[in-house]
UniProtKB/TrEMBL annotation:
InterPro entries in the cross-refs: DUF58 (IPR002881)
Every DUF58 domain range: 56-234
Region described as Disordered: spans on this chain: 32-51
Protein name: DUF58 domain-containing protein
Pfam families recorded: DUF58
Top-level taxon: Bacteria
Length: 285
């Protein structure tokens, strides 16, 4: 589920308001796709039900089950309060955003980091609107930043705010580029067991141990890897071009980049790790 959100989104910046404004787009798409669990069939399966662990106590609203009223909280506040439980199988989604310096560029449409933020928030909204909880780990050159999973719109607001703040700090940071793999290992330790994981990255400046880091994420839960790719990576100009390398100015050909990106996506696809390729301009492969 990828697409451009509000067309007024700054292609070089991320704001919480723009990310929150993506909700209607996701809600429309979810209404248009019938749930497989709701389709009639030949095999009856039990619906996912309430668990025994209390998730939160909140004000009673129309449609809530009155059997879950919390007497103590109601007496304490003077208004009806209801207990919300974790489901039998927790639906938690952890978003991992790569906002290191190699993501902060683009030649057409948005910066790769902005495309990553929007794709992650679309996934987050889908989880929240389906009753799940969403958290985020943002990887920046100043170090990882985390927002623990929370349910409902309030949880999504916290995630959107955390993503926007992390992106702003990433753009302002002037330190060295941190390698990706060690920070992915740190992020894996923040993921609740059994949670779904969506990682948006360009896999630049990997460092040592990328395969082990991805394996650590898969050990926590199913991993969706969104590879964000700029138009330059998919249709580079012909001929040698000047660029600034680690040893200073240089010339080189980038004609082999498309095949390298195809090979990378194929290599990374494996059980428990789904790969999607996202054009920074908005399309998905």
């Amino acid at each position: 589920m990828f697409g451009r959100g509000d067309l007024r989104i700054d292609p070089a910046a991320v704001t919480a308001g723009a990310l929150m404004a993506l909700e209607p787009q996701v809600a429309r798409q979810m209404r248009d796709v019938p749930s497989l669990a709701e389709r009639p069939g030949t095999t009856a399966t039990p619906k996912r039900g309430q668990g025994h662990e209390i998730r939160e106590i909140r004000p009673f609203t129309e449609g809530d089950d009155p059997r879950h009223l919390d007497a103590a909280a109601t007496a304490r506040t003077g208004s009806l309060q209801i207990r919300s439980f974790h489901e039998d199988r927790e639906r938690t989604l952890m978003l991992i955003a790569d906002f290191r310096r190699p993501m902060l560029w683009g030649t057409r449409g948005r910066l790769r980091s902005v495309a990553a933020a929007e794709a992650l928030v679309l996934a987050g909204w889908a989880a929240v609107l389906d009753g799940g909880a969403v958290g985020v780990v943002a990887l920046t050159d100043a170090g990882p930043e985390m927002q623990a999973p929370r349910p409902r719109h309030r949880g999504m607001a916290e995630v959107a705010g955390a993503i926007a703040r992390a992106h702003e700090r990433a753009v302002a940071h002037r330190g060295e580029v941190r390698p990706l793999a060690p920070d992915l290992l740190r992020a894996a330790r923040q993921v609740p067991r059994g949670a779904g994981i969506v990682l948006a990255t360009g896999l630049d400046h990997e460092g040592e141990g990328l395969d082990a880091a991805l394996a650590a994420l898969r050990a926590r839960g199913p991993l969706r890897l969104i590879l964000v790719e700029d138009a330059f990576e998919l249709t580079p100009p012909k001929g040698a071009l000047p660029y600034l390398g680690p040893d200073g100015p240089a010339y080189g050909s980038f004609a082999g980049l498309p095949d390298m990106r195809d090979d990378r996506a194929e290599r990374l696809t494996q059980p428990g790790q789904r790969v999607q390729r996202l054009y920074a301009s908005g399309a998905v492969r």
